[in-house]
Amino acid sequence: MVNGVVRKENIHNLGQILKRNESNTCEWLNSLGTFLLEDGNNLLLIQKNPITPNQNGQFKRIADLYVDAIQDDELVYVLKLLGEDWKDILLHNSMNYVKEHIQKKEKRDIAVRITENLNRELKKPSYNENENLVKAISLLSEWFENNPEQGKELFSETYRKRAEIFMNTIRDKESLYKVMRTCTDLSKLAEVAKAIEGDAEIIEKIQDVKEITSLLEEFEFDDISDLKTMLRLAQNVLADDSNKIEITQEILLSLGVTSIEELEEALQDKGIAASFMHTSTPTVEMFITVQTLIKRTKNNVIKHLQSLEDYDCTDVEELATTVIGGIKKDGLPIYIVVRPSDNGEVIIYYSSEKDTLDDPNSELWIDNGSEEPRRLTLGKVLKSTGINRIPVN
Fold this sequence. Notes:
- By secondary structure, this protein is α+β, with helices and mostly antiparallel strands.
- Among the domains are: 81 residues, no CATH class; 151 residues, no CATH class.
- Helices cover 52% and strands 10% of the residues.
């Protein structure tokens, strides 16, 4: 009987022979498995033969399957769009008899794989032309919106950069810039986006409304679909518009801020928020410029360290936007925090930077693009800031 199941290869083929639908075929398989396991010696028989279905309905050996403790079809689908179908390795949800004999896949496990695959795809040229990747990022952005706490816990860095990643998938950068330059309150656009998401017929209801026509003309959109795309973008970009502040490109550079998301994080720092009480929104061009300068700084610092005998950069790796690891100095591992100094100052606020610089084996390096990168030491900080009293508790 076991060999007969093996030859059918999947639930569909077996169901045709049994003249049962998928649900009833799974019941039959459960009964067969339960019957076989009444004799403990038959466990080896089940382990050796592919008679247990995965979530795609294909028969597998139980050694190749995992119990689905993820229980989130959206994340499974996102990973599939990124090139890895976990339905091939997840046990069919109707299979109960064998669950105690196989390991589980948790939500944290799939989060790791999504992050790894996403980072790999984002390194490829013209990645925003990959329709599956763009769709995966869009779905993951929606998942973050609906599950913010799990997003922070499970995806950490990806969650922090979610707005930047989403913006970079937009091919029509010109229209994106138009939205970012407009004086229109983005929170109102976000409310419209939510309304459109909640009612598929709302587009028909508002086609003739004068305000919508005015918006189409203002942004030079051809139709509602273009407007809807930009509204979704506004919804992602605008996490909290309650305190609008005027930030120059030079201030963004000093902060090391490369996206709206990072700017919002910076403004959670009371000291930062108290220092910049203005009212304007940085443009996308400003963020792109800062990203370029930070990338230049990392490259220049790494190149400079490679030229120094004390430093070994063989295993260099990026740990955060401005934090580099995998470097050894005099044979000991150290961490490097890098910052552009084109503006003549740096503002440290990232928790990743503070935590790194709290480590005795860490260094802060700056680069202005025209001079040799240099290490910013505590002595230099004390001299340039005039600080003469440091709390030690």
